[in-house]
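ok posting inputs for the nicotinamide-adenine-dinucleotide job
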Amino acid sequence: MKIISVESVTTLLHHHGFNNYMLDLMNALKRDFGRWESFTKMPRPAMHVPGGVLELMPICDNELYYTFKYVNCHPKNPSIGKQTVVATGQLSRIDTGYPVMFSEMTILTALRTAATAALATDMMSRNDSHTLAIIGTGAQSEFQVKGLQLVRDIKEVRYFDIDPHAMKKFARNMAHTSLKLVPCENVQQATRGADIITVCTACKAQVDVIKNDWVTAGVHINALGGDTVGKTELEENILPRSSIVVEYFDQSFIEGEIQRLSKEKAKELVHAELYELVTGKKKGRKNNTEITLFDSVGIALEDYSVLRLTYELAEKYNTGENYNMTPVLPDPKNLISCIL
Ligand SMILES: NC(=O)c1ccc[n+]([C@@H]2O[C@H](COP(=O)([O-])OP(=O)(O)OC[C@H]3O[C@@H](n4cnc5c(N)ncnc54)[C@H](O)[C@@H]3O)[C@@H](O)[C@H]2O)c1
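and the output
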Protein backbone atom coordinates (compact mmCIF):
# COMPACT_ATOMS: atom_id res chain seq x y z
CA MET A 1 0.00 0.00 0.00
CA LYS A 2 1.29 3.44 -0.93
CA ILE A 3 1.78 5.92 1.89
CA ILE A 4 1.77 9.56 0.82
CA SER A 5 3.23 11.81 3.48
CA VAL A 6 3.39 15.61 3.52
CA GLU A 7 6.94 15.28 2.12
CA SER A 8 5.66 13.00 -0.69
CA VAL A 9 3.05 15.59 -1.72
CA THR A 10 5.75 18.29 -1.77
CA THR A 11 7.99 16.08 -3.94
CA LEU A 12 5.09 15.27 -6.26
CA LEU A 13 4.21 18.94 -6.73
CA HIS A 14 7.85 19.74 -7.51
CA HIS A 15 8.00 16.96 -10.10
CA HIS A 16 4.71 17.76 -11.77
CA GLY A 17 4.60 21.55 -11.24
CA PHE A 18 1.97 23.34 -9.17
CA ASN A 19 0.00 24.78 -12.10
CA ASN A 20 0.06 21.47 -14.01
CA TYR A 21 -1.22 19.70 -10.91
CA MET A 22 -4.01 22.26 -10.44
CA LEU A 23 -5.04 22.10 -14.10
CA ASP A 24 -5.06 18.28 -13.98
CA LEU A 25 -7.09 18.45 -10.78
CA MET A 26 -9.64 20.79 -12.35
CA ASN A 27 -9.96 18.34 -15.24
CA ALA A 28 -10.34 15.44 -12.79
CA LEU A 29 -13.06 17.40 -10.97
CA LYS A 30 -14.83 18.08 -14.27
CA ARG A 31 -14.64 14.38 -15.14
CA ASP A 32 -15.99 13.30 -11.74
CA PHE A 33 -18.69 15.99 -11.35
CA GLY A 34 -19.66 15.01 -14.90
CA ARG A 35 -20.25 11.43 -13.67
CA TRP A 36 -22.34 12.60 -10.67
CA GLU A 37 -24.90 9.80 -10.92
CA SER A 38 -22.29 7.02 -10.91
CA PHE A 39 -21.20 7.80 -7.33
CA THR A 40 -22.83 6.50 -4.16
CA LYS A 41 -22.73 9.49 -1.84
CA MET A 42 -24.07 10.80 1.44
CA PRO A 43 -23.90 14.01 3.48
CA ARG A 44 -20.83 13.66 5.71
CA PRO A 45 -21.41 12.53 9.28
CA ALA A 46 -20.11 15.23 11.63
CA MET A 47 -19.37 14.94 15.33
CA HIS A 48 -19.34 18.23 17.19
CA VAL A 49 -16.97 18.61 20.14
CA PRO A 50 -16.16 21.67 22.26
CA GLY A 51 -14.38 24.14 19.93
CA GLY A 52 -14.57 22.04 16.80
CA VAL A 53 -16.00 19.40 14.53
CA LEU A 54 -14.71 16.00 13.34
CA GLU A 55 -15.97 14.72 10.00
CA LEU A 56 -15.75 11.56 7.91
CA MET A 57 -16.28 11.88 4.16
CA PRO A 58 -16.92 8.61 2.30
CA ILE A 59 -17.83 8.12 -1.37
CA CYS A 60 -17.95 5.16 -3.74
CA ASP A 61 -17.37 5.27 -7.47
CA ASN A 62 -19.30 2.43 -9.06
CA GLU A 63 -16.38 1.84 -11.45
CA LEU A 64 -13.09 1.72 -9.59
CA TYR A 65 -12.47 3.27 -6.19
CA TYR A 66 -13.95 4.03 -2.78
CA THR A 67 -12.41 6.91 -0.83
CA PHE A 68 -12.83 8.53 2.54
CA LYS A 69 -11.31 11.51 4.28
CA TYR A 70 -11.07 12.31 7.96
CA VAL A 71 -11.06 16.09 8.54
CA ASN A 72 -11.55 18.48 11.44
CA CYS A 73 -12.16 22.17 11.89
CA HIS A 74 -10.97 23.73 15.17
CA PRO A 75 -10.83 27.53 14.60
CA LYS A 76 -9.00 28.18 17.88
CA ASN A 77 -6.16 25.73 17.11
CA PRO A 78 -3.78 28.45 15.77
CA SER A 79 -3.71 30.03 19.26
CA ILE A 80 -1.96 26.85 20.49
CA GLY A 81 0.30 26.56 17.44
CA LYS A 82 -1.85 24.04 15.56
CA GLN A 83 -3.69 24.27 12.26
CA THR A 84 -7.44 24.86 12.11
CA VAL A 85 -7.97 22.13 9.50
CA VAL A 86 -5.98 18.88 9.14
CA ALA A 87 -6.93 15.77 7.22
CA THR A 88 -5.92 12.27 6.16
CA GLY A 89 -7.55 9.96 3.63
CA GLN A 90 -7.61 6.59 1.92
CA LEU A 91 -8.21 5.20 -1.57
CA SER A 92 -9.45 1.60 -1.89
CA ARG A 93 -10.27 -0.61 -4.88
CA ILE A 94 -13.94 -1.59 -5.04
CA ASP A 95 -13.33 -4.95 -6.78
CA THR A 96 -11.36 -6.41 -3.85
CA GLY A 97 -11.91 -3.82 -1.11
CA TYR A 98 -8.14 -3.57 -0.68
CA PRO A 99 -6.77 -0.14 0.26
CA VAL A 100 -4.14 1.02 -2.23
CA MET A 101 -3.15 4.41 -0.81
CA PHE A 102 -3.23 6.24 2.51
CA SER A 103 -2.44 9.93 2.27
CA GLU A 104 -1.93 13.15 4.12
CA MET A 105 -4.84 15.35 3.08
CA THR A 106 -4.23 18.72 4.74
CA ILE A 107 -2.44 19.98 1.63
CA LEU A 108 -4.64 17.92 -0.70
CA THR A 109 -7.73 19.54 0.89
CA ALA A 110 -6.35 23.03 0.27
CA LEU A 111 -5.56 22.05 -3.34
CA ARG A 112 -8.94 20.49 -4.06
CA THR A 113 -10.84 23.34 -2.36
CA ALA A 114 -8.95 25.86 -4.49
CA ALA A 115 -9.45 23.83 -7.68
CA THR A 116 -13.18 23.45 -6.99
CA ALA A 117 -13.58 27.18 -6.29
CA ALA A 118 -11.63 27.92 -9.47
CA LEU A 119 -13.89 25.59 -11.46
CA ALA A 120 -17.02 27.27 -10.05
CA THR A 121 -15.56 30.76 -10.55
CA ASP A 122 -14.71 29.96 -14.16
CA MET A 123 -18.37 29.12 -14.82
CA MET A 124 -19.94 31.80 -12.60
CA SER A 125 -17.85 34.98 -12.52
CA ARG A 126 -17.75 37.68 -15.17
CA ASN A 127 -15.08 37.08 -17.81
CA ASP A 128 -13.69 40.56 -17.16
CA SER A 129 -13.08 39.89 -13.44
CA HIS A 130 -9.66 41.32 -12.53
CA THR A 131 -9.99 42.36 -8.87
CA LEU A 132 -10.20 39.76 -6.14
CA ALA A 133 -11.01 40.33 -2.47
CA ILE A 134 -9.74 37.70 -0.05
CA ILE A 135 -11.29 37.80 3.42
CA GLY A 136 -9.42 35.53 5.82
CA THR A 137 -5.75 35.10 4.95
CA GLY A 138 -5.18 31.83 6.77
CA ALA A 139 -4.05 28.43 5.49
CA GLN A 140 -6.41 28.25 2.49
CA SER A 141 -5.90 31.79 1.20
CA GLU A 142 -2.82 31.54 -1.05
CA PHE A 143 -4.11 28.30 -2.61
CA GLN A 144 -7.34 30.12 -3.43
CA VAL A 145 -5.56 32.99 -5.16
CA LYS A 146 -3.33 30.64 -7.15
CA GLY A 147 -6.37 28.61 -8.25
CA LEU A 148 -8.34 31.68 -9.35
CA GLN A 149 -5.35 32.99 -11.32
CA LEU A 150 -5.68 29.92 -13.54
CA VAL A 151 -9.20 30.87 -14.65
CA ARG A 152 -9.25 34.68 -14.57
CA ASP A 153 -6.70 37.39 -15.32
CA ILE A 154 -6.45 38.57 -11.71
CA LYS A 155 -4.48 41.80 -11.46
CA GLU A 156 -5.30 43.09 -7.98
CA VAL A 157 -5.84 41.28 -4.68
CA ARG A 158 -7.44 43.24 -1.83
CA TYR A 159 -7.15 41.35 1.45
CA PHE A 160 -8.18 41.53 5.08
CA ASP A 161 -7.89 39.34 8.16
CA ILE A 162 -8.64 40.19 11.79
CA ASP A 163 -5.16 38.81 12.54
CA PRO A 164 -2.42 41.22 11.31
CA HIS A 165 0.13 38.38 11.50
CA ALA A 166 -1.93 36.35 8.97
CA MET A 167 -2.06 39.39 6.66
CA LYS A 168 1.74 39.79 6.81
CA LYS A 169 2.20 36.07 6.11
CA PHE A 170 -0.10 36.35 3.06
CA ALA A 171 1.78 39.41 1.74
CA ARG A 172 5.13 37.61 2.17
CA ASN A 173 3.94 34.50 0.35
CA MET A 174 2.41 36.45 -2.55
CA ALA A 175 5.19 39.05 -2.86
CA HIS A 176 6.97 37.26 -5.74
CA THR A 177 3.89 37.46 -8.01
CA SER A 178 2.97 40.25 -10.40
CA LEU A 179 -0.28 40.85 -8.50
CA LYS A 180 -1.01 44.26 -7.06
CA LEU A 181 -1.50 43.49 -3.36
CA VAL A 182 -3.72 45.86 -1.38
CA PRO A 183 -3.85 45.31 2.38
CA CYS A 184 -7.15 46.62 3.76
CA GLU A 185 -8.26 47.83 7.17
CA ASN A 186 -11.60 46.06 7.17
CA VAL A 187 -13.86 43.80 5.13
CA GLN A 188 -15.84 46.69 3.65
CA GLN A 189 -12.69 48.31 2.27
CA ALA A 190 -11.44 44.99 0.86
CA THR A 191 -14.69 44.15 -0.92
CA ARG A 192 -15.13 47.64 -2.44
CA GLY A 193 -14.72 47.38 -6.21
CA ALA A 194 -13.97 43.64 -6.15
CA ASP A 195 -15.20 41.49 -9.05
CA ILE A 196 -14.72 38.29 -7.06
CA ILE A 197 -14.97 37.96 -3.26
CA THR A 198 -13.54 34.85 -1.64
CA VAL A 199 -14.36 34.54 2.03
CA CYS A 200 -12.51 31.81 3.92
CA THR A 201 -12.63 32.72 7.59
CA ALA A 202 -12.83 30.31 10.49
CA CYS A 203 -15.16 30.97 13.42
CA LYS A 204 -17.62 28.44 14.80
CA ALA A 205 -20.56 30.82 14.81
CA GLN A 206 -22.99 32.57 12.50
CA VAL A 207 -20.95 35.66 11.67
CA ASP A 208 -21.99 38.28 9.11
CA VAL A 209 -18.45 38.70 7.79
CA ILE A 210 -19.85 40.04 4.50
CA LYS A 211 -22.68 42.55 4.86
CA ASN A 212 -25.44 42.81 2.32
CA ASP A 213 -24.73 46.51 1.63
CA TRP A 214 -21.20 45.71 0.45
CA VAL A 215 -22.33 43.25 -2.24
CA THR A 216 -22.83 45.03 -5.55
CA ALA A 217 -24.21 44.01 -8.96
CA GLY A 218 -22.12 41.61 -11.04
CA VAL A 219 -19.93 40.30 -8.22
CA HIS A 220 -19.15 36.62 -7.75
CA ILE A 221 -18.74 35.31 -4.18
CA ASN A 222 -16.96 32.12 -3.15
CA ALA A 223 -18.11 31.45 0.43
CA LEU A 224 -15.92 28.65 1.80
CA GLY A 225 -15.86 29.06 5.56
CA GLY A 226 -19.55 28.42 6.27
CA ASP A 227 -19.21 24.66 6.21
CA THR A 228 -20.78 23.15 9.27
CA VAL A 229 -23.90 23.49 11.43
CA GLY A 230 -23.97 26.93 13.11
CA LYS A 231 -21.00 28.29 11.07
CA THR A 232 -21.76 30.87 8.35
CA GLU A 233 -20.11 33.99 6.92
CA LEU A 234 -22.70 35.94 4.91
CA GLU A 235 -25.49 38.23 6.04
CA GLU A 236 -28.65 36.30 5.26
CA ASN A 237 -30.09 39.08 3.07
CA ILE A 238 -27.39 38.36 0.48
CA LEU A 239 -28.92 34.97 -0.29
CA PRO A 240 -32.20 36.06 -1.95
CA ARG A 241 -30.25 38.56 -4.09
CA SER A 242 -27.90 35.86 -5.41
CA SER A 243 -27.93 33.07 -7.93
CA ILE A 244 -26.73 30.30 -5.61
CA VAL A 245 -24.79 27.21 -6.63
CA VAL A 246 -24.03 24.46 -4.10
CA GLU A 247 -22.02 21.27 -4.44
CA TYR A 248 -24.58 18.81 -3.08
CA PHE A 249 -27.91 20.11 -1.81
CA ASP A 250 -28.46 17.41 0.85
CA GLN A 251 -25.14 18.27 2.56
CA SER A 252 -25.13 22.01 1.80
CA PHE A 253 -28.55 22.49 3.38
CA ILE A 254 -27.09 21.16 6.66
CA GLU A 255 -23.73 22.95 6.48
CA GLY A 256 -23.67 25.81 3.98
CA GLU A 257 -24.86 29.41 4.00
CA ILE A 258 -28.27 28.07 2.95
CA GLN A 259 -28.66 26.36 6.37
CA ARG A 260 -30.14 29.71 7.46
CA LEU A 261 -33.14 29.22 5.16
CA SER A 262 -36.17 26.96 5.42
CA LYS A 263 -35.87 23.90 3.17
CA GLU A 264 -38.59 25.28 0.92
CA LYS A 265 -36.83 28.64 0.56
CA ALA A 266 -33.44 26.95 0.01
CA LYS A 267 -34.89 24.80 -2.77
CA GLU A 268 -36.36 27.91 -4.34
CA LEU A 269 -33.16 29.99 -4.11
CA VAL A 270 -30.58 27.37 -5.12
CA HIS A 271 -30.11 27.71 -8.85
CA ALA A 272 -27.99 24.58 -9.35
CA GLU A 273 -25.71 21.91 -7.94
CA LEU A 274 -22.19 22.27 -9.33
CA TYR A 275 -22.46 19.14 -11.51
CA GLU A 276 -25.33 20.81 -13.41
CA LEU A 277 -22.97 23.60 -14.49
CA VAL A 278 -20.20 21.12 -15.35
CA THR A 279 -22.52 19.04 -17.54
CA GLY A 280 -23.93 22.15 -19.22
CA LYS A 281 -27.45 21.46 -17.94
CA LYS A 282 -27.57 24.93 -16.38
CA LYS A 283 -25.65 28.18 -16.89
CA GLY A 284 -23.43 29.66 -14.19
CA ARG A 285 -24.18 33.30 -15.05
CA LYS A 286 -27.00 34.86 -17.01
CA ASN A 287 -25.72 38.44 -17.37
CA ASN A 288 -23.09 40.90 -16.13
CA THR A 289 -25.22 42.36 -13.34
CA GLU A 290 -26.25 39.13 -11.63
CA ILE A 291 -24.76 38.39 -8.19
CA THR A 292 -23.51 34.81 -8.16
CA LEU A 293 -22.69 32.82 -5.03
CA PHE A 294 -20.78 29.55 -4.79
CA ASP A 295 -21.87 28.32 -1.35
CA SER A 296 -19.08 25.76 -0.85
CA VAL A 297 -18.88 23.27 2.00
CA GLY A 298 -16.50 20.73 0.46
CA ILE A 299 -17.80 17.31 -0.53
CA ALA A 300 -16.35 13.79 -0.69
CA LEU A 301 -16.38 13.80 -4.50
CA GLU A 302 -13.66 16.49 -4.47
CA ASP A 303 -11.55 14.31 -2.15
CA TYR A 304 -12.11 11.36 -4.49
CA SER A 305 -10.80 13.41 -7.45
CA VAL A 306 -7.71 14.61 -5.62
CA LEU A 307 -6.88 11.18 -4.15
CA ARG A 308 -7.25 9.46 -7.51
CA LEU A 309 -5.09 12.04 -9.30
CA THR A 310 -2.46 11.92 -6.55
CA TYR A 311 -2.35 8.12 -6.72
CA GLU A 312 -1.88 8.18 -10.51
CA LEU A 313 0.89 10.78 -10.26
CA ALA A 314 2.56 8.99 -7.33
CA GLU A 315 2.70 5.83 -9.48
CA LYS A 316 4.06 7.80 -12.46
CA TYR A 317 6.83 9.54 -10.47
CA ASN A 318 7.41 6.62 -8.10
CA THR A 319 6.67 8.88 -5.13
CA GLY A 320 5.71 7.80 -1.61
CA GLU A 321 6.62 4.79 0.48
CA ASN A 322 5.23 1.27 0.18
CA TYR A 323 4.25 -0.51 3.38
CA ASN A 324 2.28 -3.65 4.09
CA MET A 325 -0.82 -2.20 5.68
CA THR A 326 -2.67 -5.42 4.79
CA PRO A 327 -1.07 -8.87 5.24
CA VAL A 328 0.53 -10.50 2.18
CA LEU A 329 -0.21 -14.24 2.51
CA PRO A 330 0.45 -17.24 0.23
CA ASP A 331 -2.69 -18.77 1.75
CA PRO A 332 -5.28 -16.00 2.37
CA LYS A 333 -6.94 -18.07 5.10
CA ASN A 334 -3.72 -18.51 7.03
CA LEU A 335 -3.72 -15.12 8.76
CA ILE A 336 -2.18 -16.53 11.94
CA SER A 337 1.01 -17.28 9.95
CA CYS A 338 1.82 -13.53 10.11
CA ILE A 339 2.46 -13.73 13.84
CA LEU A 340 3.75 -17.27 14.31
N1 LIG B 1 -15.48 24.65 1.61
C1 LIG B 1 -14.45 23.86 1.71
O1 LIG B 1 -14.30 22.89 0.95
C2 LIG B 1 -13.40 24.12 2.76
C3 LIG B 1 -12.18 23.44 2.73
C4 LIG B 1 -11.21 23.76 3.67
C5 LIG B 1 -11.48 24.72 4.65
N2 LIG B 1 -12.71 25.33 4.67
C6 LIG B 1 -13.02 26.35 5.67
O2 LIG B 1 -12.31 27.52 5.31
C7 LIG B 1 -12.06 28.29 6.48
C8 LIG B 1 -10.62 28.73 6.51
O3 LIG B 1 -9.78 27.61 6.70
P1 LIG B 1 -8.23 27.81 6.98
O4 LIG B 1 -7.62 26.45 6.94
O5 LIG B 1 -7.70 28.86 6.08
O6 LIG B 1 -8.30 28.36 8.48
P2 LIG B 1 -7.26 29.34 9.20
O7 LIG B 1 -7.63 29.32 10.64
O8 LIG B 1 -5.87 29.01 8.81
O9 LIG B 1 -7.60 30.78 8.58
C9 LIG B 1 -8.81 31.44 8.85
C10 LIG B 1 -8.51 32.92 8.98
O10 LIG B 1 -9.74 33.64 9.11
C11 LIG B 1 -9.48 34.76 9.95
N3 LIG B 1 -10.75 35.30 10.42
C12 LIG B 1 -11.61 34.77 11.33
N4 LIG B 1 -12.70 35.57 11.46
C13 LIG B 1 -12.51 36.59 10.59
C14 LIG B 1 -13.28 37.73 10.25
N5 LIG B 1 -14.47 37.97 10.82
N6 LIG B 1 -12.81 38.58 9.31
C15 LIG B 1 -11.61 38.35 8.71
N7 LIG B 1 -10.83 37.30 9.00
C16 LIG B 1 -11.29 36.44 9.93
C17 LIG B 1 -8.57 34.18 11.03
O11 LIG B 1 -7.86 35.19 11.71
C18 LIG B 1 -7.67 33.26 10.21
O12 LIG B 1 -6.46 33.90 9.81
C19 LIG B 1 -12.46 27.40 7.66
O13 LIG B 1 -13.71 27.84 8.16
C20 LIG B 1 -12.58 26.00 7.08
O14 LIG B 1 -13.53 25.22 7.75
C21 LIG B 1 -13.66 25.06 3.74
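notes: The mean pLDDT is 97. Residues 106-124 form the longest helix (19 residues).
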